[in-house]
Every structure is written in structure tokens, then in C-alpha cells.
Amino acid sequence: MILLTGENLNIEEMRSILFQNEKIELDKNALIRVQNSREAVERIVKEGRTVYGINTGFGKFSDVSINEEDVRALQLHLIRSHACGIGEPFEERVSRAMVVLRLNALLKGFSGIRVDVLERLAYMVNHSIHPVIPSQGSLGASGDLAPLSHLALVLVGEGFVWRDGQHIAASDLWTEHAIEPLVLEAKEGLALINGTQAMTAQGVVNWLEAETLAYQSEWIAAMTMEALHGITDAFHPAVHKARGYVEQVDVAKRMLVWLEGSQLVTVQGQKRVQDAYSLRCIPQIHGASWQVLGYVKEKLEIEMNAATDNPLIFEDGEVIISGGNFHGQPIAFAMDFLKIAVAELANVSERRIERLVNPYLNEGLPPFLSPQPGLQSGAMILQYAAASLVSENKTLAHPASVDSIPSSANQEDHVSMGTIGARHAGTIIQNARRVLAIETFCALQGTEYRGKEKMSPSLQDKWKEYRTFTPSIDEDRIFSIDIERISAYLQKETGFTTYLN
Asked: Which residues carry the post-translational modification 2,3-didehydroalanine (Ser), per the record (predicted)?
């Protein structure tokens, strides 16, 4: 059970909630803050004070006052009108993350929302009720309005939820649970949708998958080192301490651990003096991506515990400020940075694939790892596929955050496009995983030719594990099946701490 306080939710707790369906509970002290904030909103409505988002219109309509008897209708109109997301839905795990993160932000007690609404959100998490949320349509300021509106629709008995990979009406879901949909009160609609939780939810899932992929890329590269008789001197601790990057030092250390006991790797001068960069510079290249992962994690964990709606209520309602915490620029930058870091893991992997299949570079392995070169093409086109994926990644890695289009009659004249960046980062991660799956497939074959009994004990274990579902190349076959199997297997490890120190 994960306790949500609005203050200290972290990435590892999100891993448990998202990948192991860990349940949540709400901190009692946080609920007191929420109740105090709600009472402030009710006083404002009762006193007839004009405050943005409570009894006014939204965006460019902020100067339109709303009568007390219309504040409920205002919230419902807001949710319905803003629920204009389009395209394929976010994957269900991202939807779950969105509910958790919006709930955690509201627990901070600055939003003026009722405890009842938060308890309903917690019920959704603990009963795996996940809204169907279209993935396109957000500018990343004022927050993720369209995606979060689809989340809020479920609370009022509209929209759709996931069930066994299909979509069912939220109204039917609440009937099954014998629970009435909520009726939103003053400010609650705005509190639910004015935040960065779509980009942050996708960002959290991205980070968890990217972290696992970064660890996996190391043992995969180590297996390639064995297949190519790579030189381990390049991983000597002194080399990396001399430069000073902790992440680089750590990658070199882990590479030596993976290769410990191997009879296939070599030392300087044994076969050649030095390796190509894609082998020799693994700690420098992968280590730089780890630096980015550290930066992104820091920003995500701040945003996961941030109050990102508008206006915010302070000092028991005496101070209400319209600000801009909904602006997604920090996460937009983080996602764009993550795109580059993961794209590079794929870029260097593709170069190692080329070395495994190219008869002029693969140290005597069969051309294209073919069992009958010429008659059978072997892994020739696998390198083509990897090259295609890394090229696509280079296009997707263009920063979304450099773009901005004004909206709401120029009231919202600069936006972050952070949700686009997060979505593209997710696609890059999928592509990179498939590239690394191709390298895995080729490295399995290469080490088999060299003699798997000469591999390091830890990599022998990996070889045996992956050979249970991807057999050797004894004849050309539809290799896309193998790559998808390996990619799916790699992805499944995201939910566990297999590679964590």
C-alpha cells in the first residue's frame, strides 16, 4: 500500500503502482488540508466574491461572471467542452498514472476540491478503473486540458473506461459498482483538468522503460563484445576515473561484471590494438545517456508532487493567486532531452549490429551470420530494419518544446508542447527497444558461433534464457517474429528491479 501525501511520491513507488498494481491510501493530514481549502471556496461562493475559476468563465472568458446557481453547470460545461482529445488513446498504464498523479497533486490542498472527489479518484486506482484518454490534443499549457477532461468525464459518469483491452461506458461501470457518478461543485472541474499530469504520466512510464532499457543495453553490448572478441582494457577503471563522470565509471564497472570469466573477449594486442568506438566507447556513450536519465528523474519527481492547477488557494482562502504552474515547460525540456538520450542508445546499438553482420568487420563470423552465405541471407535485412528505426528516431528527436502556437484568443500565447514531446519519447523508446532486440538476436547467434561455453557465466545465463523462445538461425525464417518476441520480453522487465543497484 502506497501512502499518497501530495509531497513525496517517487518513481519507485510509481513503478509498484503501475506495473504491480499496488494499491494506494490517502494521508489523513493531507485530507485536512484539502477540506480547509474546500471550505475557503465555499465561503467565496457564499459571499459572492468574484474569483477566477470559481465563479467566472475560463481562459479568454475570465471576465465573465457566473451566477451562484450556475456554478455546477459551469463545471460540467467545462469538462464536456474541453474533452476534445483525438487520436489513439494513451496506453492503459499511462491512464492509471494520470489518475494517480492528478490525485497526488490535489492532495497538496491548494485546489479547493472536495475530499469526496479525491476519494473517488482513489477508488478508481484501487479498483483498476482507468479512463480511456485520447493521446492527442494537448498543448501542454494551460496544462493538459483535453486529456484530463476525458479523465474527469469518467467521474461524472460520461466517457469510457478500459476493460480487458476494450472500452466500456463509464455510466455502465458505475452502475456495476452501485455508485452514483459525481456532481462537480464550484472550481472542481477546473481543479481536475488544469495540470500537467498527461505529459508527466507518459513521462514517468517513459522513464521507467528507458531506465530498464539502459541497463539491458549493457548486457546486450557485452554479449556483442564477446561475439566480436572485444578488448576489455577500454573498461579499465582508471580510464573512467580520469574523466570523472560517475555514470561513465558505473557503466564501465557493470560491463566488466557482465564480462567477468569470459574466454571470448581479448586484451590490447592479443588480436588488435583497439576497437571501434561503438565497442570501445560504450561507457562514454551509454554513461552520457545515464546522465540524462538522472536529470529527467529529478524533474519528474518534482512535477509528480507539484501543485499545477490555477488559481491556487493559500492562507485559508485569504490569498488566491492566478499563476502559471500549469505550464509544462520543465517537463517538455525533460522529455525532449530523454528522446535524445534513448535515441543514442539505439544509434550505437545499430552500429554494433553492423559490425556483427558485416563480413569485413565481424572478426571471422559468417557473412550476415548466415548458415549458408549466398543461399541464405541470414541477418542481412535485420540491419536494414535497425537502420530504419534509428533514422525514424532522429526525426522524432526534434524538440517539441521549441514550438509554440498561441491559443484562447492569444490569452495563452506561449505553450510548451510537452505532451507531444512525451508521446514522441515513448515512440523512440519502443523503436530503441526493437533495435536492441535486433542486437540481442545477432549477438546470440554470434556467440553461438564462437562457442557459448566460452561466454562469461552471467552472459551464458542470458543466452540460455533467450534461447528458450528465439532459436538459432539454422535456416532463413520470418525474423520479425523473433524480434517482436525479444522486444516484448525486454519490455516486461520494466515492472521489476532486475537491474537496479
From this structure: 142
Phi first, then psi: give them for residue 277, nearest 5 degrees. Answer: -60, -35
Reply yes or no on whether 295 is catalytic. Answer: no
Domains of the chain: 2-195 (1.10.275.10), 203-307+334-495 (1.20.200.10)
pLDDT tens series, the chain, 501 aa? 999 999 999 999 999 999 999 999 999 999 999 999 999 988 888 887 877 777 776 766 666 676 767 778 888 999 999 999 999 999 999 999 999 999 999 999 999 999 999 999 999 999 999 999 999 999 988 889 999 999 999 999 999 999 999 999 999 999 999 999 999 998 999 999 999 999 999 999 999 999 999 999 999 999 999 999 999 999 999 999 999 999 999 999 999 999 999 999 999 999 999 999 999 999 999 999 999 999 999 999 999 999 999 899 999 888 989 899 899 999 999 999 999 999 999 999 999 999 999 999 999 999 999 999 999 999 999 999 999 999 999 999 999 999 888 888 777 778 888 999 999 999 999 999 999 999 999 999 999 999 999 999 999 999 999 999 999 999 999 999 999 999 999 999 987 655 544
CB atoms within 10 A of CB 440: 28
- The angle subtended at Cα 26 by Cα 94 and Cα 9, nearest 5°, is 50
Instruction: Find the largest Cα–Cα distance for the chain.
Output: 86
504520466: which residue's cell? 201
